[in-house]
TrEMBL record:
Residues 1-111 form the STAS domain. Belongs to the anti-sigma-factor antagonist family. NCBIfam families: ant_ant_sig (TIGR00377). SUPFAM superfamilies: SpoIIaa-like (SSF52091). This is Anti-sigma factor antagonist. It comes from Marinigracilibium pacificum. InterPro entries: Anti-sigma_ant (IPR003658), STAS_dom (IPR002645), STAS_dom_sf (IPR036513). GO terms for molecular function: anti-sigma factor antagonist activity. Pfam families: STAS. It comes from the Bacteria.
Length: 114
């Protein structure tokens, strides 16, 4: 898994590519997210268009991110999942927990209204 992040219009934008399998990068990523939350960031858009696969540990990473933001009164939106990932979100019913948008612009608009 590869990821990068930036702060854009008060939204923490996280982009994944490859396979989200919650390997050792997971703990490092959660630490980066916690640092930004501690600085007052409350909104997060996670671009998952580059993900090919997510396993149960990867799902755990997404849920941990969501929980950290919501515990501080924030929100997380998933952006542009591919067909395989979209099927997984539906099967696991995570599509009922996460808000999903087709574009980063749509995610930012949705987050600004939350």
């Amino acid at each position: 898994m590869k990821y990068n992040y930036k702060l854009e219009d008060e939204v923490f934008v996280l982009s994944f590519s490859g396979d989200l399998i919650g390997e050792s990068d997971g703990a490092e990523l959660i630490e980066v997210i916690q640092e930004n939350i501690d600085k007052g960031v409350k909104l997060c858009a996670i671009d998952i268009s580059g993900l090919r696969y997510i396993n149960s540990s990867g799902i755990g990473v997404l849920i941990t991110i969501l929980t950290k933001f919501r515990n501080r009164g924030g929100e997380v939106v998933l952006v542009n999942p591919g067909d395989q990932v979209k099927k997984l979100l539906i099967i696991t019913k995570l599509n009922n927990i996460f808000q999903i948008e087709d574009s980063l612009e749509g995610a930012k608009k949705s987050l600004s209204n939350s």
